[in-house]
Amino acid sequence: MQNLKIQEEVNSLMSLGQHFDDQLKLASVELGDFSDDDLALLDKCAQYYSLLHIHDFNLNYLRDFYCAKKRQCIENRQTTVQQRVELQRILSSIEEATRDVVMLERFKAAAEERLIPDIVVMQRNGQQLATKQALLDRQKTLKIPKDFSIESVIEKVDSLEQR
């Protein structure tokens, strides 16, 4: 009984194989025309057909499958190219930012070298205020006559220089 069942299955598979060969001949396709990758895909397709118990081989399914794979391949290439362009743009932005950072660090270092400490600035301001206050005090104590003319003093200095 078991042998009979196996024999029937072998016969049905052989007839199915013959049917597929006839279908390929109708489409003018030889198995030797396919590359190894295509044959691997056909093997996978045959496995799926056997697992799903599909017994009608339709070339439109294979064409649809091929077109879908080709579309995916083209989309993947396009995505890869777009990502490469985006990566180049990002890398150039990073390089530009790095150059800006280096320039700003040099500027910061130069500015820090020129920076005067707060203590020195406070001392200078204190000295200037003290000097200004002393000059104002001296000016207040200085008595200038009412008939004093600065122009006459300048004329006398000029005449002394000419001699």
UniProtKB/TrEMBL annotation:
One of its GO terms (biological process) is mitotic spindle-templated microtubule nucleation. GO terms for cellular component: HAUS complex; meiotic spindle. It comes from the Eukaryota. GO terms for molecular function: microtubule binding. This is GM14323.
